[in-house]
Amino acid sequence: MNGNREKLVVIGNGMAGISTVEQILKLTSRYDITVFGTEPYPNYNRIMLSYVLEGSKTMDDIVLNDLHWYEDNGITLHTGTTVSRIDADTREVVTNEGTRVPYDKVIIATGSSSFILPVPGHDKEGVVGFRDIADCNMMLEAAKQYKKAAVIGGGLLGLEAAKGLVQLGMDVTVVHLMQDLMERQLDPQASAMLKAELERQGIRFKMGAQTTELIGGERVEGLRFADDTVLDADFVVMAVGIKPNTLVARESGMEVNRGIVVDDYMQTSLEGVYSVGECTEHRGVCYGLVAPLFEQGMILAKHICGVETAPYEGSVVSTKLKISGVDVFSTGEFLDSPDHTVISHKDDWKRTYKKILLRDNIMVGAVLFGDVTDSAELQKLIKQKTEMTDELYASLMGTGCGGHKKVASVETMAEDEIVCGCNGVTKGTIVNAITNQGLSSVDEIKACTGATRSCGGCKPVVEQILQYVLGDNFTSGAKQGICGCTSLSRDEIVAGIKQKGLQTTKEVMNVLGWSQPEGCSKCRPAINYYLGMIAPDTHEDEKESRFVNERMNANIQKDGTYTVVPRMYGGVTTPEELKRIADISVKYDVKAVKVTGGQRLDLIGVKKEDLPQVWAELDMPSGYAYAKSLRTVKTCVGSQFCRFGTQDSMAMGALLERKFERLDLPAKFKMAVNGCPRNCAESCTKDIGIVGNDGGWELFIGGNGGIKARLADSLCKVKTDAELIELCGAIIQYYRETGNYLERTSEWVERMGLEQIRSVVVDNLEERKALMERIEFALNHVEDPWKKVLRNEEGQTKLFQGIEVSARP
């Protein structure tokens, strides 16, 4: 530590405290900073806990400031350490272990904790809150063993918990005391629309229910309500509210009401000690939303750095949230009263709702549901107590409610208006970064300012700010790389690999100038794929750059077991293979055997350590159900058995599957072959769909039956089997060479254009032949991954008998 600098101690390693530290670091270097955090992690984003719970993000994904950030900024971090009190006489902070750290100034940012209803049975096993990563981990474990969950509380945290548990396969009922969900943020109309949408997503509700007891033995078995009805549940999440963590302030003799009492500069009753965030009470109000906490932190940072600033006078509370994919927003007053003039519009078809409240023609509140485009503008107008005019009415209630979707008016946003609520990034910060540092992409803005790095809900506004600042240069200047580690596009990376003869991901990152030397989970798998596509004969596959399913050659399930899918060419198998599958399923206690949509059998629930033996005893090829590769070729019975069949679809499907299996592709790939135009094998929704007719075959490409459903486009008609196989190979290789990593053919066809693809693989016979030669070369260097593992005993022990594997590259 530098002895000439003042000592600043921050008690609390959460979002409010570290956001304040970030602001301080921008303004001065006068402080030696020490941070104490009770949890064993660096600063992470609590707003994103529901994403960890549902499995779409990991703990690493939601970390806002990793350990290197603390080191780089000279901050001493104590994780897993709780501060018990502040000794004002000696000017020292004292931990539970008795460690004393001297201070000149202290910032208390201890946040809040879950409020647990003091009903009988609240301390039973299986009852948790939802406030931190430890709660999240308990919920993840519970979902592996138990099936019926109750979430007490219909606010934001309760709904996020319910969403996550439903995603984990639990039967979830939200129990709420009031008749409206999120009654502190939404009016009854928006609440009813939200409830209807969440019910469509599988969440049940019991409204107007007062929990009086949690019943059961040592473990909770259900909830009893005031009307003496009972709800069965073997897991209960309490999400009924939060209470400020004020213990350190009370033990230190500070003034505390509901929260730690502060003045307009966040000063507590103890000299040199400040408080910020959910633990704080300002003018009788404790704020539980993130935007006010960032506003407090910015004013506190300026104040203790000696920078002139206006006092904190409280916040106009606004809520902008995405709940299970549904956008909601409210600001100011949101419940109708007799002295309000109400302007509203509800669209049942688009599931949108907008309401603006006026008092004496002054805008005082608003609620949005489904479409929150106007949220920034409404927040500003209400904060400024703007009078409603005909022009404003036309702007706010015109095209925004029925016709064309408007874009947010970033030009009129104030410089200090928060754009990224997750990370407290203002419009002014983004504009300055673009202007002063020459930023030209959203990824560069994310890396520089933190905007969009969490939930991503602010990305459209950030893009609009970028366009607003760059003006005519936006189109050329806003080129984004494949990830935030590089500004290079897919084509530039492939060209660089070829020109410079690069052979490993580390070489690519080093030579082509990655900003993050280790890359990330987006670019490492992509580079590994591009290297293998370019040099299939020399490239050594980098398992560490693949996702868990590809590393383990099986699909991991939510309980940690795996699904094994053996190859059945064209969906055809033999009685001997079926018997073998049945015997192995019984022997290895397979939980279920499922017929897939691609006419295969899933063996669900195989233990990791049993995988190699299951593969060996099956003695069948891998079905590649886990890979970015050819998954299945679905077939109808065709001319062999069907009275309508004109072509032998089963034989052609098996031939194509044997021909192109095991080859790495940008994304998963599915095919189907129909023996006649009746389309029983559903060729119209496959990456390549083939339909037999009296004169030969018709070829379709770019279909998708998934989230972004798309009907395939007709590419051409051919007369012979040989020409069909050649065209399929050319299409696959052209897709391999021009597709972006993780880009499905449905997106690839739209990006490339059907005519461009047709001109290369259909019309240009010389190019088609060249594509076939390259794919044949690649096919000569692939082998069955299950057999490869079985030959490598050392690798088997390390991967299948070792420690648990990470789910990310």
TrEMBL record:
<dbReference type="InterPro" id="IPR017121">
    <property type="entry name" value="Nitrite_Rdtase_lsu"/>
</dbReference>
<dbReference type="Pfam" id="PF01077">
    <property type="entry name" value="NIR_SIR"/>
</dbReference>
<keyword id="KW-0001">2Fe-2S</keyword>
<comment type="pathway">
    <text>Nitrogen metabolism; nitrate reduction (assimilation).</text>
</comment>
<keyword id="KW-0004">4Fe-4S</keyword>
<keyword id="KW-0560">Oxidoreductase</keyword>
<dbReference type="InterPro" id="IPR023753">
    <property type="entry name" value="FAD/NAD-binding_dom"/>
</dbReference>
<dbReference type="InterPro" id="IPR005117">
    <property type="entry name" value="NiRdtase/SiRdtase_haem-b_fer"/>
</dbReference>
<dbReference type="InterPro" id="IPR052034">
    <property type="entry name" value="NasD-like"/>
</dbReference>
<feature type="domain" description="FAD/NAD(P)-binding">
    <location>
        <begin position="7"/>
        <end position="280"/>
    </location>
</feature>
<dbReference type="InterPro" id="IPR006067">
    <property type="entry name" value="NO2/SO3_Rdtase_4Fe4S_dom"/>
</dbReference>
<dbReference type="Pfam" id="PF04324">
    <property type="entry name" value="Fer2_BFD"/>
</dbReference>
<dbReference type="InterPro" id="IPR041854">
    <property type="entry name" value="BFD-like_2Fe2S-bd_dom_sf"/>
</dbReference>
<feature type="domain" description="NADH-rubredoxin oxidoreductase C-terminal">
    <location>
        <begin position="318"/>
        <end position="386"/>
    </location>
</feature>
<dbReference type="Pfam" id="PF07992">
    <property type="entry name" value="Pyr_redox_2"/>
</dbReference>
<feature type="domain" description="Nitrite/sulphite reductase 4Fe-4S">
    <location>
        <begin position="627"/>
        <end position="767"/>
    </location>
</feature>
<keyword id="KW-0349">Heme</keyword>
<dbReference type="InterPro" id="IPR007419">
    <property type="entry name" value="BFD-like_2Fe2S-bd_dom"/>
</dbReference>
<dbReference type="InterPro" id="IPR036188">
    <property type="entry name" value="FAD/NAD-bd_sf"/>
</dbReference>
<comment type="similarity">
    <text>Belongs to the nitrite and sulfite reductase 4Fe-4S domain family.</text>
</comment>
<keyword id="KW-0408">Iron</keyword>
<keyword id="KW-0274">FAD</keyword>
<keyword id="KW-0534">Nitrate assimilation</keyword>
<dbReference type="InterPro" id="IPR012744">
    <property type="entry name" value="Nitri_red_NirB"/>
</dbReference>
<feature type="domain" description="Nitrite/Sulfite reductase ferredoxin-like">
    <location>
        <begin position="557"/>
        <end position="619"/>
    </location>
</feature>
<dbReference type="Pfam" id="PF18267">
    <property type="entry name" value="Rubredoxin_C"/>
</dbReference>
<keyword id="KW-0285">Flavoprotein</keyword>
<dbReference type="InterPro" id="IPR041575">
    <property type="entry name" value="Rubredoxin_C"/>
</dbReference>
<dbReference type="InterPro" id="IPR045854">
    <property type="entry name" value="NO2/SO3_Rdtase_4Fe4S_sf"/>
</dbReference>
<keyword id="KW-0411">Iron-sulfur</keyword>
<dbReference type="InterPro" id="IPR016156">
    <property type="entry name" value="FAD/NAD-linked_Rdtase_dimer_sf"/>
</dbReference>
<dbReference type="InterPro" id="IPR036136">
    <property type="entry name" value="Nit/Sulf_reduc_fer-like_dom_sf"/>
</dbReference>
<feature type="domain" description="BFD-like [2Fe-2S]-binding">
    <location>
        <begin position="482"/>
        <end position="531"/>
    </location>
</feature>
<keyword id="KW-0479">Metal-binding</keyword>
<feature type="domain" description="BFD-like [2Fe-2S]-binding">
    <location>
        <begin position="418"/>
        <end position="467"/>
    </location>
</feature>
<protein>
    <submittedName>
        <fullName>Nitrite reductase large subunit NirB</fullName>
    </submittedName>
</protein>
<dbReference type="InterPro" id="IPR006066">
    <property type="entry name" value="NO2/SO3_Rdtase_FeS/sirohaem_BS"/>
</dbReference>
<dbReference type="Pfam" id="PF03460">
    <property type="entry name" value="NIR_SIR_ferr"/>
</dbReference>
